[in-house]
């Protein structure tokens, strides 16, 4: 039973190894999702609005559509927080002793990752369309053009990173479903409690 793993992690209570953790595919993809969200949030928040002397309020460079910039900022912020939360869950995951609790965590990962892939797809289509129909006279100096393109590109990349994250979670779920103890209420023994000696027969 020493080699038993439930949903991609071994028995609870083991020491955390940062080197092993960072090399896991799910960790790499999760960090990419996190970084892409930061890039998108920074691009829209810092360079997504343009000020004109004759106007009091700054306007969004995406076809003067405030909803486009709001959507980009919301996606970047929530994507960043969600990635950070699941990254923390990945760190804590090996300490979860119950198989059922691990199953719930992996299922949540599948659903949330698939949902985010859809959200980024919608965002990419929306932002790309609004940038395409933007009028030259609204932004004659082409301010924020690089930031707008970066936002669209990283929104596109985010679709695939979240899809990949969902597929990795599905793979972990299948690994858990194939374990011998899948249908058992397996709980790792407390490593701090001494094991009882087996009775001997004379």
Give an overview of the whole structure.
The chain has 202 residues and is mostly helical. Helix content is 61%, strand content 2%. Strands 1-2 form a two-stranded antiparallel ribbon. The longest helix has 34 residues, at 99-132. The protein is elongated.
- Mean pLDDT equals 82
Main sheet: strands, sense, barrel: 2 strands, antiparallel
User: Helix segment count?
Assistant: 5
User: What is the first-to-last residue Cα distance?
Assistant: 28 Å
Name the strands of the widest sheet in spatial order: 1-2
The outline comes out as elongated
CA gyration radius, whole angstroms: 23 Å
Label the structural class. mainly alpha
| Parts with pLDDT < 50 across at least 5 consecutive residues | 180-189
The ordered H/E elements are: HHEEHHH
Number of strands: 2
Beta-strand content: under 5%
Q: Percent helix among the residues? A: 55-70%
